[in-house]
Design brief:
With 628 residues, this protein is of the alpha/beta class. It has 16 helices and 22 strands. It has an eight-stranded parallel barrel. Strands 5, 6, 8, 9 and 10 form a five-stranded antiparallel β-sheet that branches. A three-stranded antiparallel β-sheet has the order 2-3-7, with no helix packed on it.
Length: 628
């Protein structure tokens, strides 16, 4: 035992002695240095490859935006080259990641948008502003630009510009408000700045690129198409219980006649210049209204008159239509289009969307009126008609004679300002253009325009710059106006689309025309059609006048695309009577005409009793005979 123990101790001592032997430092340092060099080489190799991938990505992104595909040459690396260049110390995971990244770069390169050089032919509309909408709850505008490929330029960006209504395009002084990488679909978001001096609510937006250091516009302009997103009133339209309407007599508002007649819809004119300016009445002080950083004055006494009209109509449950008219005032010439300020004595003129001051005033007036007449306090206006019978340029919407495209462009500028102002306050409000009964006359040297042409050109204009839900207010008066017998045959009134005139005898021509796909609203529906003014004189006899109204109303009631039939007027106007146009339900000096009771009962269960007489006058045995 003792001897064994001694051996173990001796052996242990030897091991201990061996462990104490001096280390060969030179040999160890050399070995560690080799390991360090190998590790550094591996790290360097990985870094170079990663850097190459990143540079490759950047180059591809830049070249994909600005270099034709055939000018880019990709290096070809064989499998053996790949293997020979991979350091032995590189982990297999790292290698796999590098290969995956390379493949991703290759796929990105292959799927990049095709780049095109701009030419004189394709530059102006190379791209398109596909949509321009306010994002709900964000206070921002989202603009989406699309194109089949991307245009070659100095850099990889699309630039966004906000232009004024009256601007024809970007200039050397224009400043971009956003930029984003060019792609087949590119989205940019900018602040709306609602009701501020730098508001973009009425702007039109275009895309541009940089070529030789200068901005080049590559899209047509597009306006905001959904101003109703920011509205604080009118989420539900005030749907009238029938189509029966009337141009009301303000002198009879406080009586019970409107209630007795059962009026469901009413129309009332607002000459804009009459509203503006200070008042000297202490009872009705001047209204100072600030919009987009500027203050405007409204005549408190005149506004109070409209308050009375609209609040009374609203309290009676009547759906109200207001017609905005551009009457001349030397105090507010900025509302008149510069090409309409001389050469006419017409009562109303083209609104001014061609100058900054005109746009600002229209925006302020439209917003003020929509705010004031969007609830029950001052009354509610549900329908707004912008100007009167715009195809009758010479008589009712004066502007110096020009081609129809130019004329409609100027009207469309103003219409869109009012539409945007009104809808940004009252989302359910309807906004209409107005035409008369002249449809497709094709007269030589006609001082006016045909209604059909106005509808077509206006629709194309609006659709090309951002489609909106405009409506059509038409006036299907008889031809001539002094003829009450709608049913009387006329060479001007046919049931063909190229009829010269549209009256209540062939009103289906209008509604059928509006069913065309290109004329539908953004939701794919037939646009709202309002027959906002028509009347029948009693000078050939009160029975004929009453029969004409029954004929017209039954035709309107049977047509699903007509939203209202507003008769002109409650009381005869002396200036019209002198022209043979005694349109009223009442005589100017007082007293009801026969038409009064026909109007009263036409939309009730008792209608047949009050319209039976009309059949013999018209020459029919049943009302179905007049339906088309």
């Amino acid at each position: 035992m003792n001897s064994d123990t001694g051996k173990r101790k001796k052996t242990a001592g030897k091991r201990k002695a061996i462990n104490r032997r001096p280390i060969n430092r030179k040999k160890a340092d050399k070995k560690n240095f080799k390991k360090l060099i190998a590790a550094l080489c591996a790290v360097l190799a990985v870094s170079v490859i990663i850097a190459a991938v990143l540079i490759y990505l950047l180059v591809i992104r830049e070249q994909s935006a600005d270099t034709p595909a055939e000018e880019i040459e990709l290096p070809v690396i064989t499998e053996s080259e790949k293997e020979s260049e991979i350091p032995e110390n590189l982990g297999t995971d790292v290698v796999e990641h590098i290969i995956t990244a390379g493949n991703a770069v290759d796929e990105a390169y292959k799927s990049r948008p095709e780049s095109h050089e701009l030419t004189d032919e394709n530059a102006a509309d190379f791209a398109a502003v596909e949509s321009c909408e306010i994002e709900a709850g964000t206070g921002k505008i989202a603009v989406t630009i699309t194109g089949d490929g991307i245009p070659a330029s100095d850099d990889k960006y699309y630039y966004l510009f906000a232009l004024n209504t009256y601007d024809s395009g970007i200039t050397a002084e224009s400043e971009a408000i956003a930029k984003e990488y060019k792609d087949n679909t590119t989205k940019m978001t900018v602040a709306l700045n609602y009701n501020r001096s730098n508001s973009r609510l009425y702007k039109k937006f275009v895309a541009a690129i940089k070529i030789d250091g200068k901005f080049v516009q590559v899209s047509a302009p597009e306006y905001i198409t959904n101003p109703e997103v920011i509205a604080k009133y009118g989420s539900v339209y005030q749907q009238p219980s029938s189509k029966k309407g009337l141009l009301v007599d303000p002198n009879k508002l406080r009586g019970n006649e409107l209630d007795d007649l059962g009026v469901k819809q009413a129309a009332y004119n607002i000459p804009i210049a009459r509203l503006l300016g200070p008042t000297t009445s202490s009872a009705y002080p001047t209204i100072n209204y600030t919009y987009n950083g500027k203050t405007y004055t409204f005549n408190g006494q005149v506004v109070a008159e409209y308050d009375l009209v609209f609040s009374t109509l609203t309290s009676k449950g009547i759906c109200t239509t207001a017609i905005l008219l551009n009457n001349y005032s030397s105090s507010y010439p900025q509302l008149i289009h510069p090409d309409a300020r001389s050469g006419s004595t017409a009562p109303y003129y083209m609104f001014n969307g061609a100058e900054e001051s005109g746009v600002e005033y229209m925006a302020a007036v439209g917003t003020f009126l929509a705010e004031r007449y969007s609830d029950s306090r001052h009354g509610r206006v549900s329908n707004w008609v912008i100007a009167n019978e715009i195809n009758a340029r010479k008589e009712w919407n004066y502007m110096a004679k020009t081609d129809i495209e130019t004329y409609v462009e100027e009207y469309a500028k103003a219409f869109r300002v009012f539409y945007t102002a009104i809808k940004s306050v009252s989302s359910s409000a309807r906004v209409y253009i107005s035409i008369d009964q002249q449809w497709d006359r094709n007269l030589k040297n006609n001082p006016n325009y045909d209604g059909r042409d106005i509808v077509d050109v206006f629709n194309r204009n609006i659709a090309s710059k951002g489609n909106i839900d405009w409506g059509l207010a038409q006036h299907p008066y008889n031809v001539p106006l002094t003829e009450a017998r709608i049913w009387k045959s006329s060479k001007y009134v046919t049931h063909s689309v190229d009829t010269s005139m549209i009256t209540m005898a062939n009103i289906e021509v209008l509604t059928n025309y509006m069913e065309q796909e290109q004329l539908l609203n953004p939701q794919g529906e037939v646009r709202s059609i309002l027959l906002s003014e028509q009347g029948y004189t009693s000078q050939a006899g009160e029975a004929v006048q009453a029969a004409a109204f029954a004929y017209a109303y039954y035709r309107a009631e049977a047509n699903p695309h007509i939203d209202g039939f507003l008769l002109n007027r409650e009381t005869d106007a002396p200036e019209e009577v002198s022209q043979g146009l005694s349109f009223g339900l009442n005589h100017a000096g007082g007293g009801h005409k026969q038409i009064y009771n026909v109007f009263k009962y036409i939309d009730t269960a008792q209608h047949a009793e009050y319209t039976e007489f009309a059949k013999s006058i018209i020459g029919i045995s049943g009302w179905s005979e007049i339906m088309y």
